[in-house]
Amino acid sequence: MSGMGSTCFGREMLWHWPLDPAITYLNHGTVGATPKKVLAVQQALREEMERQPARFLLRELSALSGASDRPVPRLREAAEAVARFVGAQGQDLVFVDNATTGVNAVLQSLDLRPGDEILITNLAYGAVVNAARFVAERAGARLVTVALPFPLPDKAPLVSAVAEALTPRTRLAILDHITSETALVLPLAEMAACCRAAGVPVLADGAHAPGAIPLDIPSLGVDYYTGNLHKWALAPKGCGILWAAPERQPDLHPPVISWGLGQGFTQAFDWVGTKDPTPYLSAPAALDLLREWGWEAMRGYNHRLAWDAALMLTSRWGFDLPAPEAMVGCMVTLPLPGSLGKTPEEAARLQYALLYEHRLEAPILCRDERLWVRISAQIYNELEDVERLVRAVESYR
Predict the structure, then answer these.
(1) Which phi and psi (to 5°) does residue 143 adopt?
(2) pTM of this structure
């Protein structure tokens, strides 16, 4: 175990989460896991909302509400707290249910014409690829996919590949900050600079970034940034953010058009119909818990655990490291022995065998006719969890 101050990280931290202690959970990156303390805040907010639903939702929640004795609407107050955490201003940030929703908001706001191009990479999240393809095909535009290498020795090929793929018809580049399947921390600012030099707006998919790596969104040079708070930032499920540069906000609309139409960026997104807003309103409490536990220490522990897992598994199974340490955050994706299979069906069988026979939860992926395992490190994990995974995997060789 390791930690800082009075907080020790490792299996003992599991009691802060409602996770099943019988499961070795190495899959925090998929949908996150919310600590009990944050869930208690969310439940208290729900109970407060249900005592006077109309006052809570219609008068206190957003700037579109009626008269209220609150000096700042609840959503704007929460947005300000989250914005400070990611280096932004509250008026440039809105809540969305997840990063995919943020991506859809930007894509559906584009004025695409036949022959236009949307640039995306082969490492992009599948749902984002689907959304981009749908919007492009509907407009008669093209979805152009940049092939980025994986594994890779350094970041240079990524920047040059994006720069070379831009054309006069490129209307938007969608770039990951941290890739989902391959778990790489990409050189987003450098890739965005290439796009900016070519006059191409950038939508950054930061689904895994908030809470996993330091964020100063405006300094990245992107036009739009969307991310999830329900993964590494400890917020409840259904809590994401969408940031937009001020000059991009007038033409940006939520996927659901409601009463905020024509009322400005924040008003348009703050009210999209009746829904449970407590995941958003609980986000500041989640960030408070990060600070209480020591966010720098948490990030350091998680990164070290992920990198130690990479060193252990590649050495044991005779593979090269998939990327330099600087491109690894709280997750790492590693190759599995070839004897375990090379098809998506074999990947699914192995993943379910690990869960149901060994009580281990970790994604098994298939890329380039090889199986890979993605290991997420959270402060309730320790190296023994990875060793348990190794023993389980090797039982199938």
Answers:
(1) -100, 115
(2) 0.96
CA 187 – CA 225 distance, rounded (Å): 15
pLDDT digits (tens, 9 = 90+) for 58-99: 999 997 766 678 889 999 999 999 999 999 999 999 999 999
The alpha carbon of 309 is separated from its chain's Cα centroid by a whole number of angstroms, namely: 21
What is the pLDDT, as a whole number, of residue 39? 98
Q: Which of 277, 291, 374, 281 is nearest to 333 (CA)?
A: 374
Q: Which residue has the tokens 């818990």?
A: 289
Instruction: Provide the token pair at 391.
Output: 């023993």
- How far is the CA of 117 from the CAs of 140, 174, 251, 272, in angstroms? 9, 11, 19, 29
Kindly report, residue by residue over 248-276, the tens digit of the pLDDT. Answer: 999 999 999 999 999 999 999 999 989 99
State both tokens at 215.
């964020």
126-139: pLDDT as tens digits: 999 999 999 999 99
Contact 265, 242 (CB under 8 A): no
Say what the pLDDT of residue 7 is: 67
CB atoms within 10 A of CB 15: 12
Q: What is the dihedral of CA 297, 300, 305, 311, to 10 degrees?
A: -160
